[in-house]
């Protein structure tokens, strides 16, 4: 994992996004937030093989797309790659999600290759409240009322109309969309709300169903370790975590704290602290499974199996995964303080957390017994955070109402859209919230989250290659 981190850091630095790396220097990121940031970091960047001239541009958007009397505006950023542009070029828009946009998605990979084939112009739009497209001076709960997917989709609709109006060459161009993870969800929902603005879209790993207690997620993480690792590895995770739980439950908390190198302030008599800890333990495994490729899981399982006993193995492994340090701050209150600090200090973790409370839930809990990560991180942990960080109105009942409203508005598993190609990795923990084969999606064996954005390449599995080719065929139909 250390090697993987270095590669990521290298990619980030080479494309010049040092901005987001500044945050840990300003304030130490508490354990749970750190592991969640890792899970919400956005689709993997593409490997750029040549120098591409990317234009950074801005468009004026309404702060509130649904209130004609509110005339406030903000600047939304987007990136353009016009190297193939000609009269009437189709427009290939990659949608940003809860992350900062970056050059590689419009400079390399399968989306780029298809744009080249069709002489398309490539665009990457930034989602309001993320990256540099921040509409309000602070992230107070009141200001965040302008942050929701309906506003973001209306921004995209306005973007398409404005972009065409500003580029007479493109006035009659066809538009197609792509997105990964949450921005894949946006592709599907955009087609539902604005069917005439695009001819088709590609949604890689799109969750469609809002669900507060997302118990299936950890089941698939477990399956990934079982299928790509081994039964021994799976058992070691399961038994090691069970052993740590039982130490805390049986007056051996001090010993467990020492094994996990937790700071003294950690209170093992406090459920919220314990839940924060066990959630952060499981999130190390989620982080590996969600973006695994090649032999990541084999490699990590080999390391886990080098220790003498299960609990020691898990304690050492997660300590390493957490980035080590003198002592580990796993207090619940640390997460609350960090998200509150985000009111005045821009950090994408706060707006995304807000969206989960307000629209989706998707709390990856220990609620299923069919997973190896124990029983100590109920969705209640995450629901409590909503209340403590944003407003006491976000209790269990309200968050369930919010998720139900999202499903009612967008159709949940039945979005009712045409000409949207949905792909999922069979071992992507998000896939239970999206379409399956019966609904027309393509499920790629062994693949993880957003794993299919790279160019067609010799190391692709047969299924991966077939899916990329199917998409290329659909794009030809849509643009014909
Ligand atoms: C999936 O991975 C397993 C373990 O590496 C391998 O045995 C299997 O052939 C793979 N399946 C496909 C369809 O690639």
Automatic annotation (TrEMBL):
Record bears the keyword Glycoprotein: yes
Coiled coil regions in record: none
GO biological process: proteolysis
Alphabetic keyword roster: Glycoprotein, Hydrolase, Protease, Signal
Signal peptide (from-to): 1-20
Pfam families: Peptidase_S28 (PF05577)
One GO MF term attached to the UniProt entry: dipeptidyl-peptidase activity
Keyword Hydrolase attached: yes
Membership in a protein family: Belongs to the peptidase S28 family.
Alphabetical list of PANTHER family matching this protein: PROTEASE S28 PRO-X CARBOXYPEPTIDASE-RELATED, RE36938P-RELATED
Name of the featured protein: GG23250
Gene responsible for this protein: Dere\GG23250
């Amino acid at each position: 994992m250390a090697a993987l981190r270095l590669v990521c850091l290298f990619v980030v630095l080479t494309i010049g996004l040092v901005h987001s790396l500044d945050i840990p220097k300003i304030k130490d990121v508490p354990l749970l937030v750190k592991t969640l940031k890792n899970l919400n970091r956005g689709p993997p960047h593409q490997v750029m093989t040549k120098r591409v001239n990317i234009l950074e541009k801005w468009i004026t958007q309404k702060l509130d797309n649904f209130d004609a009397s509110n005339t406030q505006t903000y600047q939304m950023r987007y990136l353009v790659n016009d190297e193939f542009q000609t009269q009437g070029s189709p427009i290939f828009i990659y949608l940003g999600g809860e992350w900062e946009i970056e050059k590689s998605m419009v400079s390399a990979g399968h989306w780029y290759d298809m744009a080249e084939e069709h002489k398309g112009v490539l665009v990457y739009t930034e989602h309001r409240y993320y990256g540099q497209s921040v509409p309000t001076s602070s992230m107070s709960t009141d200001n965040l009322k302008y942050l929701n997917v309906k506003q973001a989709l209306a921004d995209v609709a306005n973007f398409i109309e404005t972009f065409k109006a500003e580029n007479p060459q493109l006035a009659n161009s066809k538009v197609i969309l792509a997105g990964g993870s949450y921005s894949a969800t946006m592709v599907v929902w955009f087609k539902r709300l604005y069917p005439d603005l695009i001819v088709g879209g590609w949604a890689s790993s799109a969750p469609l169903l809002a669900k507060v207690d997302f118990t299936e997620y950890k089941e698939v993480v477990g399956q990934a370790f079982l299928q790509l690792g081994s039964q021994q590895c799976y058992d070691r995770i399961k038994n090691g975590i069970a052993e740590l739980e039982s130490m805390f439950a049986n007056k051996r908390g001090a010993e467990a704290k020492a094994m996990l190198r937790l700071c003294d302030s950690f209170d093992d008599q406090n459920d919220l602290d314990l839940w924060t800890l066990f959630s952060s333990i499981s999130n190390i495994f989620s982080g590996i499974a969600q973006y695994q490729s090649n032999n990541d899981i084999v490699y990590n399982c080999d390391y886990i199996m080098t220790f003498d006993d299960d609990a020691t193995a898990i304690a050492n492994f997660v300590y390493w995964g957490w980035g080590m340090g003198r002592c580990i701050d796993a207090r619940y209150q640390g997460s609350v303080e960090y998200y509150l600090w985000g009111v005045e200090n821009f950090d994408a973790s706060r707006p995304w957390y807000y969206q989960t409370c307000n629209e989706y839930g998707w709390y990856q809990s220990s609620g299923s017994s069919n997973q190896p990560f124990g029983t100590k991180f109920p969705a209640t942990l995450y629901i409590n955070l909503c209340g403590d960080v944003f407003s006491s109105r976000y209790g269990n009942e309200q968050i369930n109402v919010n998720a139900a409203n999202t499903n009612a508005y967008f159709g949940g598993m039945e979005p009712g859209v045409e000409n949207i190609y949905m792909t999922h990795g069979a071992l992507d923990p998000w896939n239970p919230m999206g379409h399956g084969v019966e609904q027309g999606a393509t499920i790629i064996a062994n693949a993880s989250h957003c794993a299919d954005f790279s160019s067609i390449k010799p190391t692709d599995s047969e299924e991966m290659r077939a899916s990329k080719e199917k998409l290329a065929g659909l794009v030809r139909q849509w643009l014909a």
